[in-house]
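Reopening this one. Same input as before:
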Amino acid sequence: MAKVIMVQGTMSNAGKSLICAGLCRIFVQDGYRAAPFKSQNMALNSYITEEGLEMGRAQVMQAEAAKIAPLVCMNPILLKPTTDMGSQVIVNGEVLGNMPAKEYFSYKKRLIPEIKKAFRKLSSMSDIIVIEGAGSPAEINLKENDIVNMGMAKLADAPVLLVGDIDRGGVFAQLIGTLSLLPDEERSRVKGLIINKFRGDKTILDPGIQMLEQRGNVPVVGVVPYTPLSLEDEDSLTIRFDRKKRGMIDLAVIRCPRISNFTDFNVFEQNESVTVRYVTSVSELGDPDMIFLPGSKNTMGDLRWMRENGLEAAVKKKSQDTIIFGICGGYQMLGKQICDPYHVEEGGQMRGMELLPVETTLHQEKTRTQKKSSLHQIRGRLSCLSGMEVSGYEIHMGNTSTEKSGAEHLVLSNGNVYGTYLHGIFDAEGIAAAILSALAKEKGIHCDTDGMYSYRQLKEIQYDKLADTLRKYLDMDAIYGMLRESRL
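Same output, byte for byte:
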């Protein structure tokens, strides 16, 4: 059975996911079979495994860092918010149903056997399991029936590393406050503290670290510097949404309220001449070179939001001379009509943006599949993509019928509007570079795409960079000592 270590944080976005990913890469580099685990994830960025099961992308990223295929047992429970008060509950990769938050809070303890089963399965094929917590273990209102922080640490009998985010300030209060709010049994599980996202001269921190260790009675096992990385982050707190600068090539993503799988656009960020902006209003939209309509967990609701704030009208007007590309829910929005006879979302039917000759009917069964194919003949301004190899996954509620046959992935309307159900379509080698080259040629500028990687290649470089950073700034001898003491 595997040895275990758990990474918890003082708050959301303290850096748990990346610390876990970096540890997974280090353990693999050192010759161990490592695997990530998170009992319950709340995210709208999800992934479909080879078996057609759905899981959170954070554990997919960590599995990639561990150089193994993502398995749904790495994330047995996924919550996908559908409203501010409820979520779609996915257990072992399949939809259990929609639940209000209060109902799920009472129900979740019944899922502990599924968590144990998934963890045992993963443990049987691993040497080391790196477990990620969620939010903070000191969230008193959520501690009852906890299954993701100290509750999970107890189930796995795991030593805990507690991560604090110095970049947002108050890191000493974060760490000491969290420790002080934990019961003795839980506090005893915390074997090391990590100060994350530090900028500056570490010697300035030394007096604070001494105080921290004295008051907390837990050693500080690392001060990790702020390290810019092109890797996926927690979707609800990503800093990507705050970027407003416009580059030589300006790509705008409509940031609808229930945006999902915006990781589709990360591959473009590696080019210094390109900016990827997430916009929520007509004034923010400006005059981009290309507009993306991303996936959505509530297609009809997000289309209504676009309609009410003027973005729909603005996008339709821009489609006369700007490339519009919709993915999944964005693809559905671009069609003539969306019908919801089974009340999957809001019920009834809704006029689409009428930019693509397709109609969508939402169904209760979710399509979950991986695909690999070459693109059919693509007409218009993205004809450069014709015949190129792509791979990715589909995850959507509903079927979309088209008036044109043979358009398996892309559907062309007036030469500027495209749509696909395939998440990850831009990640394959050459796809993003071809799009940027076409946009640059139209503008009469040069965009150097020779050094662009496929998204997979780019992430491999980033995982190694992350591992190198953690090796330098974490006490890995102490962490390996914690693993030897774990009793699983």
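So the earlier flakiness isn't reproducible anymore. For the record, The radius of gyration is 23 Å.
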